[in-house]
Specification:
With about 60 residues, this protein is mainly beta. It has a domain at about 1-30. The protein has strands at about 10-20, 20-30. A two-stranded antiparallel ribbon has the order 1-2. A hairpin with a 2-residue loop joins β1 and β2 (about 20-30). It is elongated, with a radius of gyration of 26 Å. The protein starts with 9 loop residues before the first strand and ends in a 35-residue tail after the last strand.
Length: about 60
């Protein structure tokens, strides 16, 4: 049995027959992580179609 399992969070216990054995499957509730709101004004775009090997990628100038 898993030692890091919090039994109060378990909502279901499924016993599944597979390959002539029985497997336990614990179903528990998990917190939903909310994605942060991004500011679309602070976006960086890179046009990679005109980059040659002798182009400085950061400044966009030739060496």
């Amino acid at each position: 049995m898993a030692s890091n399992l919090e039994f109060y969070a378990v909502k279901k216990l499924r016993i599944l027959p597979r390959n002539r054995c029985f497997y336990w499957e614990f179903v528990y509730k998990k917190e939903v992580v909310v994605k942060p709101q991004l500011n679309k004004e602070n976006v960086l775009g890179i046009n990679h179609t005109n980059i040659s090997p002798d182009t400085n990628f950061i400044e966009g100038e030739k060496n």
